Amino acid sequence: MTIQSKRLSLFVLPLAIFIALVGLLLFGLTQDPREVPSPLIGKSIPTFNTPDLIDPSRQVTDAELRGHITLFNVWASWCPACKAEHPMLMQLAQQAGIQLIGLNWKDERSAALQVINSTGNPYLFIGYDRDNRVGLDWGVYGAPETFIIDRAGIIRHKHIGPIDQTVWDDTLAPLIKTLQAEPHSP
Known about the structure:
The protein is α/β, with parallel strands linked by helices. The protein folds into two domains: 1-29; 41-181, Glutaredoxin, CATH 3.40.30. It has five helices and seven strands, in the order αβββαβαβαββα. The protein has helices at residues 3-29, 80-92, 109-119, 133-138, 165-181, and strands at residues 49-51, 59-61, 70-75, 99-105, 125-129, 145-149, 155-160. A hairpin with a 5-residue loop joins strand 6 and strand 7 (155-160). Its main location: membrane. Keywords: Cytochrome c-type biogenesis, Disulfide bond, Redox-active center. One of its GO terms (molecular function) is disulfide oxidoreductase activity.
């Protein structure tokens, strides 16, 4: 190998690596972070057992999510997007055919209770996950995150970010309607 070809290879290799990294960065910038696929889609819900936010002597478990079409919503009092979606959740709580179960995530109990007491409680149950034990099993990395679970306890969809009317109309409501039309298993 000549000195000239060594110099050329010392220049070309770093340039090729730089171009590849720029290409990956540009590709990443075109992706929607809300479209991060969950490896749990199509799988049974994780087993969990956590205290109820409102009544710590009661346990909220995965059994609460089976047998019903469930909107499982991860939220926290410190989360601005959670506060923005709360009126929509209050509206959804009035709709027949689904149940809302909450998971208060990485939060102080007193702060979470203050939010529920001042803005209303759309949830049938609220699990309290201060230490992120449940969140880890569900693959939660931010709030709000919402999962749609079918009657068999299979995770059918994960939505990252707040639920608004558009998300409800375009994504969640059609999926729930499809799940409601599926035959019930005994």
